Amino acid sequence: MGELAVLPVFFALKGKRVVLAGASERAVWKAELLNATGAQLDVIAADPCDAMRVLLAACPNAQLVERTWQPSDLPGAAMALVDAYTDDEASTFQAAAKAAGVPMNAIDNPAFCDFQFGAMVNRSPLVIGISTHGTAPVFGQAIRGRLETLLPANIQAWAQAARRWRARVVPLDLPFHARRRFWERFSERALGVSDMPPRDDEFEAFLDSAKSDEAVPTGRVTLVGAGPGDPDLITLKALRALQGADIVLYDNLVAPEIVDMARREAQKIDVGKRGGRPSCKQDDITAMMIAFGKAGKRVVRLKGGDPMIFGRANEEIAGLVAAGVPVEVIPGVTAALGAAASLQISLTERNLARRLQFITAHAKDGRLPEDIDWAALCDRGAATVVYMGVKTMDALVAKLLGHGMDAAMPAVLVERATQRDERRIVATIADMPAQAKLAHPDGPCLLMIGLVFAPLLIPHAEAAGAAALYT
Ligand code: SAH
Predict the structure, then answer these.
(1) CB of 253 closer than 6 A to ligand 1?
(2) Which of 14, 273, 281, 437 is flagged as catalytic?
């Protein structure tokens, strides 16, 4: 093991005497913390602040002793803290605590401390402590914030169930392996993707599966939306699913940073198309997921944007359901909404778009689909987002103009929406194919069409003024 700056240990203080010498404002939080542990708290201070008086008045296990602390206060205490005004006082207190054999902390003065208080995440009985060894408490707090977001919402209920169920497991005197399996099943469920609170009737199920030797954990597949590219746009639920996965099957549209969010030990499999290499066939992907699911693996199928938007999710879901593998879907931010956010244009601006439509311009054979509703696309009161619309853009625009779309209808092509190298091309619909060719887009693109995009074409026009222009 490399250097360990401090040893994390967890003190059980219930019923034990703790001395807090001094009571300025900064000692109040420590008093509150110690009181929450159930300690017998002696606050010794000649001039306690008002907040301390108020706090202690509400704490039956705490007493306020209004005088200066003395070395004789320390013997027999489980822990001692000093809220010292000077280094001299901190040093004197440290010597007195040492003589009494009591571990001590000088608040906000790491040079005189036997131990430090770190930041913490409290889901009692689960408690997570974070230390920067006194170097950067604010950094510790920021890490605490990050951990808070990673923990499943029901983790405290699971920690409480662990306490209850331990009392039931111990008397059963199970063999070591069965006991271990019980707690493995328990942890899998507690940290699993479904994020459900424990039910008391699950105890027996865990026990049964722990007792049977060949018990295979039930696998499952989660279709997860990875969002449009910016890694910060994935959901907390998606992050948790990634961190609980044994296998991650990802598409080429998914940013590498997001694939990296998966557990380090997870097997990551690229099932997308890149550099001319053919992608895995849809049937092969479904078959792979079924096989892994049946082998008890937790599989995450990671898809760009939202899995339910032009993602062939139904085929995968139907295959899994038919094979009896449990499946779940976690939504993501679809590309259109990512693009709207970066353009800062509402797709449903009241006066300009009463309707929003997502279409694909790419049929199974790679050509423009035959059955597009042209009247709907030419509706001046609609905003249209075309997915997979680059290859067939010439044909699409010719049809739109042929069906009566105004040649001056504003359009924007957004490439790699929300990613660092996002690009946009703004043009009238009639000019867009030529402009797009000049720009040579090589990333995923959305073609967005409608009066709501007029402010991009005429940068200084008020949206309402632009509407007037085009009506
Ligand atoms: N399920 C995805 C869409 C998959 S279809 C979603 O909800 O976003 C693939 C098409 O999505 C691409 O051809 C492109 O039109 C669009 N797309 C995906 N990510 C994009 C991005 N970051 N910027 C622009 N278009 C994107």
Answers:
(1) yes
(2) 273
373 is catalytic: no
Q: Is 306 in the pocket of ligand 1 (CB under 6 A)?
A: yes
Cα→Cα distances 419→103, 202, 252, 384, 413, Å: 52, 44, 14, 22, 14
| Catalytic-labelled residue, pool 42, 73, 83, 251 | 251
> Does 458 contact ligand 1 (Cβ within 6 A)?
no
98 is catalytic: no
> Which residues contact residue 205 at a Cβ distance below 8 angstroms, ignoring those fewer than 6 apart?
none
Tens of pLDDT along 124-177? 999 999 999 888 889 999 999 999 888 888 999 999 999 999 999 999 998 888
What residue's CA is closest to ligand 1, atom 13?
388
Provide, rounded to the nearest whole percent, the portion of the chain with pLDDT above 90: 78
For 82, the enclosing helix (H) or strand (E) is strand 79-82
Instruction: Extract the tokens encoding 141.
Output: 């707090």
Measure the CA–CA gap between 139 and 367, rounded to whole angstroms: 53
